[in-house]
Amino acid sequence: MTGILVFLLSLTAVMIIAAGVGIFWAIKSGQFEDMEGPAQRILMDDDDPLIPHNRLKDKEE
């Protein structure tokens, strides 16, 4: 009984350490710096011919 308890506690400690390392890695690599940009970028229509950048592309081709 005690052996299983020690095993489970040590497994819990390893998982907590892994989660902490993952969270600190995500913060250091900038995963939480721009929370709204990707969500808004998916709504933008890049193929719209009224966007000036796309007009210049069409004239060059």
TrEMBL record:
| A Pfam family reported for this protein in Swiss-Prot or TrEMBL | FixS
Q: Which domain of life is it from?
A: Bacteria
The record's keywords, sorted A to Z, are: Membrane, Transmembrane, Transmembrane helix
State if Cell membrane is listed as a keyword: no
Transmembrane ranges? 6-27
Q: What is this protein called?
A: Cbb3-type cytochrome oxidase maturation protein
